Amino acid sequence: MTHPSVDPQKLEKLAEVAVRVGLQLQKGQDLVVTAPVAALPLVRLITRHAYMAGAGLVSTFYADEEATLARYRYAPDESFDRATDWLYEGMSKAYANGAARLAISGDNPMLLSGEDPAKVARANKANSTAYKPALEKIANFDINWNIVSYPNPSWAKQVFPNDPEDVAVEKLANAIFAASRVDVADPVAAWAAHNANLAKRSAWLNGKRFAALHFKGPGTDLTVGLADGHEWHGGASTAKNGITCNPNIPTEEVFTTPHALRVEGHVSSTKPLSHQGTLIDNIQVRFEGGRIVEAKASKGEAVLNKVLYTDEGARRLGEVALVPHSSPISASGILFYNTLFDENASCHIALGQCYSKCFRDGANLSPEEIRAQGGNESLIHIDWMIGSDKVDIDGIAADGSRVPAMRAGEWA
Amino acid sequence: MTHPSVDPQKLEKLAEVAVRVGLQLQKGQDLVVTAPVAALPLVRLITRHAYMAGAGLVSTFYADEEATLARYRYAPDESFDRATDWLYEGMSKAYANGAARLAISGDNPMLLSGEDPAKVARANKANSTAYKPALEKIANFDINWNIVSYPNPSWAKQVFPNDPEDVAVEKLANAIFAASRVDVADPVAAWAAHNANLAKRSAWLNGKRFAALHFKGPGTDLTVGLADGHEWHGGASTAKNGITCNPNIPTEEVFTTPHALRVEGHVSSTKPLSHQGTLIDNIQVRFEGGRIVEAKASKGEAVLNKVLYTDEGARRLGEVALVPHSSPISASGILFYNTLFDENASCHIALGQCYSKCFRDGANLSPEEIRAQGGNESLIHIDWMIGSDKVDIDGIAADGSRVPAMRAGEWA
Ligand SMILES: [Zn+2]
Ligand SMILES: [Zn+2]
Ligand SMILES: [Zn+2]
Ligand SMILES: [Zn+2]
């Protein structure tokens, strides 16, 4: 059943890494999986490894690109303000009862690029609203969760448009396997070493307790104030349920929470952002008091503006992340049109919801306390890339003194 | 994407019949679909026709035979007392809020035949219990619902074991299309004529108001008392939400509710019963006071006994149905190993839950009133075949007088 261009041994290693490293799935724990139908071969392997790890019940919910397109092409207008609220409510209940969550990404990033942006925005908003209680349990790290990728043909053809489908799928599969560190003899050990390195970088940043970071590069002169009591994280991390997992596979970043009210200056994106089917390129925004007051883009500007109008928090930052320019994903030179990969090629910021775990003692802070310390709130969380080999970053201490953090895209 | 052996025009007609005849889907109505992953091509066509009919949201939930097998082979023992209760709760909520329901059948009927029957029974019981609130809304006909079939390769290979897969799929596809009356120029009109014929048979039986039916044939001498105030139905029928739909495609039966306490004598099955992966053949049971007091089978007797021990109502009847031996499905000579088809080849009875709609004014009867009139209650509803060209059926009036209903398997 595996696509003939996808190496079955490496796919099986990816499944094993997802269950053992990504989720650290516990004996008796339920697992909720979401996946594109094309990822069926990976779902089957993950299901087997999950049960071998002692899973109680594995429940998979498939999305189908053709069904999504049928909705845009034939559904009545009212459909676009609707969402399967009862399903998301149920998922939220499953997480509250201890289930882990695994998402397989791999949809065609351009799927909705030909559809009415107003309908896309309405459908996304309805979906985000319905999904909020479940997403909060993930964003607040109540549970162990993980996201991995499968090389769907429709995605592969976007990444490698000049190759025949089989070649494109093979190239994307191999790029996913390399970035996910499963093309080595012992992927579980490779992940342990990688996690140790990311932990070292986080520890250095946490020792410095910078008040702000200053990004300087072409089209960028941005001061990102950090939230009071922020904490840097990277790699493996412990959820509130006590399970240490790797939410993102791949991951190359160390990241924390900016102060929602203390971002000043202008910044330019360094890679295109593929947002739910639309490519947004050459973003340029200006912040005042933490709020985006000017935004433009050479492509997808209308969709960017829809995003910014989702809610008040959509104009403010929920994450800032540091990734060396020499990271394997950047070195691959591939633009994946998928945030899970592209954010790991570059330093980035995210519009919208912050992660409560990026605060000291974050698990015990109330939403009000998080807000008071500068944590942002929103229905969205959208990462976009602002790093390159031409960007320098300084850490600014509370007394205004500066320490080089990165030079020309590398750790200083 | 369609299996190359499945005629795409006929598959599209099946999708159209499912939406327009099976569901009579209304503008703005949501639709919940359950399907095997192999039925993806039919789901896509149904999704398109549903949106063209004005569906609000179409949500499809796929089941995967490989995932089911992985559970049986690798999951810890505790897994088999678990079910995705939160999902079924949500479905129940969706139906309460007006959604219609479409099930695509087509799983390999022998899927679980090699698995531990005790685990199969436990998993089925956990699932039935969790599913009960949603199933009741379907069984009580609160909503318009429909079930159609897709010729999964794994099913086709069971039905036509001596053919190569492509030939088996093509034969099963054509048998499904013929039985579902979509191999004609205007399937919607063909269904209107067929519904009119079934309505005529029901009207005759309702006019007679028999107290009981008497089945006489090889290994069978059974008197099935009918529930007080029972009503015969067949073909199109109106759900409590006011929508007239065809729940089963195909359907050839007229059916009503037996009296749970008034079934006497013995009966032999005339076709094998494929129950959740196990074949149960040559069933022989004896009833006293409506209750099965003796049960044997030449194959699958252990599973039959597990079924009978599900709950008290599992030993009593919830349905009796009349189907002429000359029905197109019987004439095809194919054993489908699938109740949706095989029950329409023959007169049958069902163990377990009755349909409240098979009572006069059933929509307004409370569960207590239905019970008082002889309606049975159970977590299960399992049809098995007791008709053949050697079975005669008499209707017995309240005064004991007899009217021939069927002779040698045909309407008298
Ligand atoms: Zn990030
Ligand atoms: Zn992020
Ligand atoms: Zn029936
Ligand atoms: Zn039945």
Automatic annotation (TrEMBL), chains A, B:
Its cofactor is Co(2+); Zn(2+); Mg(2+). This is Aminopeptidase. Belongs to the peptidase M29 family. It is an enzyme of class 3 (hydrolase). GO terms for molecular function: aminopeptidase activity; metal ion binding; metallopeptidase activity. One of its GO terms (biological process) is proteolysis. It holds the Pfam family Peptidase_M29. Its EC number is 3.4.11.-. Keywords: Aminopeptidase, Hydrolase, Metal-binding, Metalloprotease, Protease. PANTHER family: AMINOPEPTIDASE, AMINOPEPTIDASE AMPS. The keyword Protease applies. InterPro entries: M29_Exopeptidase, M29_N-terminal, Peptidase_M29.
